[in-house]
């Protein structure tokens, strides 16, 4: 997972860096392009103002000659094709010459905002957009006509149509992108002078982050959202002489479109290496984790007898797993010793060290599972209560321990010795026949009878013997028969062995 997350983060980081790089480059390209367009537009406006200034000098010298004035307007109109129309007026705004003639404006007095502004300012100027007498949305670039005596005679002006074909369209209309990018030109009052959508020309744009940024800086770039809600990357610059704002915009989606193909190539080259890396990481992780997993599984099986052997076989090829394995083996050894001790204590009689009833049950179950025949001897001390009453319980306990020693001494190594009550004992003899069990019981009886205990009168025991094999029902029944034989020995006078003949 760590390797996968690292690879995914690397891929995402690469994507983010490339994305931001494309955006930054596009913003800078748009800023540079807008600045170049602003410089070209500035140069164009100055060139037109120079043409008008030169024509103004000619008009001042021949202001009373209509033919020369008309010829000069025609020259300005058709020689450079910079203007859609050219007009010369007197100081009161009356048209003295105009080109083209199709406008039929000769003799009329201009009262349009651009004309009135030119007559009032009496200096070279570029007007705000207005509706001309021919009902066209235009701007007028004008220069005053002043004679040699410094007298103001009128002005000469060239108009540029904003919604029709003009030099402004040719200058700004050819944009080097064909992906939804476009250029817009606004005057210093946010009125659109040029836009790919001709219907928006003349519209006053509401204050927006982009227009506010243009007001604050001569040029720059900005990420914006247009009126259609589309994310755009904009660059802007200002034309110094006119205050026009040139804005170049490109859709963010178009800018980032190449990134999809680029990241696909990165992913295509990265995937094989990533798969190999992840496989290697998985293999090494498995190699590292396997000893720990096997040790953890063994930790859940610590009660099994062969768990130590299984742990020793676990490969531990690095320091940490070796130390864990060593600690686990030590812990299991201590635990098994503790369990063995507890098991021994729960299955044995603390006074005599012989099996108790629980130990008897477990050993009897083992004998039965092995399908092994056995003989059973039950015995108890004759008149044991009188011993306790006469000599006290401590002496009675000493008698019981002495009897236990005699039982051990007379039993075989494979026999199972149990203390099942206060003075009651049981001996299981696996594999023994009835006659052999009777002989052992008789020998034990005689040894106890001859036993000398300091300060205590001689003691005797009574014994019952029974036999069991698989054809004789449940093994508990043979124990019951041995008890019955013991009771019979008691009835017959004690200190004797009685063999059960029942099957």
From TrEMBL:
Its EC number is 2.7.7.65. Pfam families: dCache_1, GGDEF. It is a multi-pass membrane protein. CDD domains: GGDEF, PDC1_HK_sensor, PDC2_HK_sensor. Keywords: Cell membrane, Membrane, Transmembrane, Transmembrane helix. It is found in: Cell membrane. It catalyses: 2 GTP = 3',3'-c-di-GMP + 2 diphosphate. Pathway: Purine metabolism; 3',5'-cyclic di-GMP biosynthesis. Residues 372-502 form the GGDEF domain. It comes from the Bacteria. This is diguanylate cyclase. It comes from Rahnella inusitata.
